[in-house]
Amino acid sequence: MKAVQFRIARPTNNLAQIVRFYHEGLGLNILGEFKGHAGYDGVMMGMPDKTYHLEFTQHINKEPLPNPTKENLIVLYYDTPEEYKKANEQIQKLGIIPVEPENPYWKGKSETYEDPDQWRVILFNGIYSPE
């Protein structure tokens, strides 16, 4: 089987703040959104090629949600030091400051941030290569 897209979806009770963090702070494109669908509002955001995206949904009742661990991570890779620096400056303009990573692997080569739900996003200075 060969999938051609993937989406990671999770609920939030802070949809407006989540959109601000991922769209304004991290520069993800808003790919689609919906309101009032069986009690849910949602926003899909992703990379420019639309093959990878995140979906955040919020139910009208705002039920309690599970807390993430400090190892629930989304990692964004930047292929030049200039783009990495620019990304960190952009999110910090929103008053969001880096937090200490749980895993020491990330120290010295990335910055870790928490979104409004305390899920962690790592901005990595470089690209991943499985080789």
From TrEMBL:
Residues 2-126 form the VOC domain. Pfam families: YycE-like_C, YycE-like_N. InterPro entries: Glyas_Bleomycin-R_OHBP_Dase, VOC_core, YycE-like_C, YycE-like_N. SUPFAM superfamilies: Glyoxalase/Bleomycin resistance protein/Dihydroxybiphenyl dioxygenase. This is VOC family protein. The lineage of its organism: Bacteria, Pseudomonadati, Bacteroidota, Flavobacteriia, Flavobacteriales.
